[in-house]
Amino acid sequence: MDLGIKDRVALVTGAGRGIGRQICLTLAEEGAKMAVNDLFQERADAVAQEISQAGGQAMGVLADVTDQESVAAMVKRVSDEWGSLDVLVNNAGIPVITDPEDVSAAAGQFFSQSDRAQWERSMGLITHGVLNCSRAVIEGMSERRWGRIISIISDAGRVGEPRLVAYSMAKAGVVGFSKALAKEVGRYCITVNCISPATTATEATQAWLQAQGERIMRQYPLAKGLSRLGQPADIANAVAFLASQRAEWITGQVLSVNGGYSMAD
Ligand SMILES: NC(=O)c1ccc[n+]([C@@H]2O[C@H](COP(=O)([O-])OP(=O)(O)OC[C@H]3O[C@@H](n4cnc5c(N)ncnc54)[C@H](O)[C@@H]3O)[C@@H](O)[C@H]2O)c1
What we know:
Helices cover 45% and strands 14% of the residues. The protein is α/β, with parallel strands linked by helices. The chain has a single domain (9-257), classed as NAD(P)-binding Rossmann-like Domain (Rossmann fold, 3-Layer(aba) Sandwich). Helix 2 links the parallel strand 2 (33-38) and strand 3. The radius of gyration is 18 Å and the shape is globular. It starts with 8 loop residues before the first strand and ends in an 8-residue tail after the last strand. The model has no long low-confidence stretch (mean pLDDT 95). The structure holds nicotinamide-adenine-dinucleotide. Residues 13-14, 16-20, 37-40, 43, 64-66, 91-94, 96, 125, 152, 154, 197, 199-200, 202-205 line the site of nicotinamide-adenine-dinucleotide (NAD). Nicotinamide-adenine-dinucleotide (NAD) binds at residues 13-14, 16-20, 37-40, 43, 64-66, 91-94, 96, 125, 152, 154, 197, 199-200, 202-205.
């Protein structure tokens, strides 16, 4: 099936590893020109190089998505280089902890033990990251009357996840954002949707998954049959479809890609 995105320009945030990296590889296979963003230049460059070596077009672009100025500069650089920016995937969503001494950095704390630093880390990255990146691309997409904005949320934001209360709140906020924006920009042929993974095997979840062992398989109806958990490719395939020409009539929607973990309406 031709997805109709050859030569479209796509920017994926937080794409230096994990789900974002795989989204870049998959969109590049469909012929999209890939801007690979990360907080770490070397991660972004490595993914861009992987794409180039496979015959695709890619550039690594450094920016902290929480910083509106650096996001605007990144979007300008991509648009200047390739003439447009057609697809934005808001993927960055797990905060990087730089200070190992920071007690608020502990993931998986109950809300009663959490503090403002922790809340701001999740809210800043998830909500402001999505606002900054979407704001930076929306005018160009409107002028060209074509665009796709896809945000990677989480089932935590759909059904709630204990010990991830602020994260759940922020991800749920991205759903409201996407539905409202979809109503504003439909007239410009821009679609705005969310993909909602449950636990997916990435560097970020590796240690936690190991600690869970086999029992986690019971939470996923498809896991036993397929003998596996969610992989970045599962998310990337869904993103590729929503980014495609074939999905032009789908907007304001949330699609869980989760092996049946939750079945939210
Ligand atoms: N892995 C899962 O189980 C899972 C489940 C549900 C939702 N998600 C969502 O999927 C997305 C990707 O998750 P992942 O597991 O691949 O994460 P990851 O931590 O493996 O990779 C994310 C990348 O984002 C980059 N990043 C972090 N902060 C950034 C910033 N401010 N600006 C730019 N880049 C930044 C990191 O450097 C890292 O390379 C996130 O939004 C996450 O919330 C993941």
